[in-house]
Design a protein that fits this description.
binds iron/sulfur cluster, 2 domains, alpha/beta, about 325 residues, globular, 8 strands, 3-stranded antiparallel β-sheet, about 35% helix, Nuclear Transport Factor 2, Chain: A
Length: about 325
Amino acid sequence: MKDRETEQRLRREAKALLEQGKVDYIIGFETGSLKFTTTPLITKDKDSVDRLIINPFIVNNLSEYLTELKGRVGIVAKGCDNRSIVSLIQDNQVKREDVVILGVPCPGIIDLSKVEGLVGKDRDELDDVTRDGDKVVVTVDGEKKEFPASEVLFDNCLGCEFPTPQEYNILLDESSSLVADKTASRKGIETLEGMPQEQRWDFWEKEFSRCIRCYACRSICPACFCERCFVEESEPQWIAPVPRWQDNLIFQVIRNIHVAGRCTDCGECERACPVNIPLRSLTKEMYDLVDDLYHFKAGMDKEAAPLMTHYETTDPEDFIK
Ligand code: SF4
Ligand code: SF4
Ligand code: SF4
């Protein structure tokens, strides 16, 4: 089904949910103020649902808003967002009966900075960017250029394991297929893994020296749901409030431990970072470690206990010295 048909169906379903009083809010996407962007739409108004859109730029993980809203919510969810919702249910942050999941099988989200790099133009200079099966078609100065989707999707989308929501009330389209070759998704991580330890340490020192501790990575992350974060504690004070690189690094190391088994590799923390620190090199590494060591993937089963709240006698323990 094309995006336009999915969008029409979404609007019909969302309107019906509000009219029938089955939900208090709808959370979805509407057109953003900048070219080729979308922005979250949170509404109680049945006429506003005509602003809902589905296109290759619906990037936000909307599950982030669920813990903020009171009442029943109809939420548009791609594969990774869907797993974040399930993970929040597992952590008792959201009740399954309070969400109506409008699942969107997801073919991957276009990373405009990759498009800009390939065509050598700023996004404002592009006439159009559309998805056509395995290709992305970019129109510049009236001329069409085609790129394989694998060159212009976000890195996390290139490695996506579950693009089609598994837990939903309404599935708005047929299943979406995966990008077959996932090597590009881990390229940055593998470069880091190939570095000698000292060089890797220097790399992160340089990266975290640029962190301004804005906490955008924390704010956007659905797995970071604590009302009070350890960074705000003063007794004991785990890290200094000023953004020294060492404290910035500790912030991310502890954040990664806290989201282990909750992170769905939605890529939002890295995308939100205003200074482009490659945070996914840490979160995806932790995601893979959790999978390799504990055979656990976040948000796969709403009845399963969260990773950090249970153990198996067969769990590896050779890291305890
Ligand atoms: S990670 Fe998967 S489900 Fe999430 S936006 Fe990318 S392709 Fe879609
Ligand atoms: S979003 Fe980037 S700059 Fe802001 S706190 Fe996180 S790592 Fe630091
Ligand atoms: S840590 Fe980053 S990639 Fe993982 S769930 Fe949070 S925002 Fe998404």
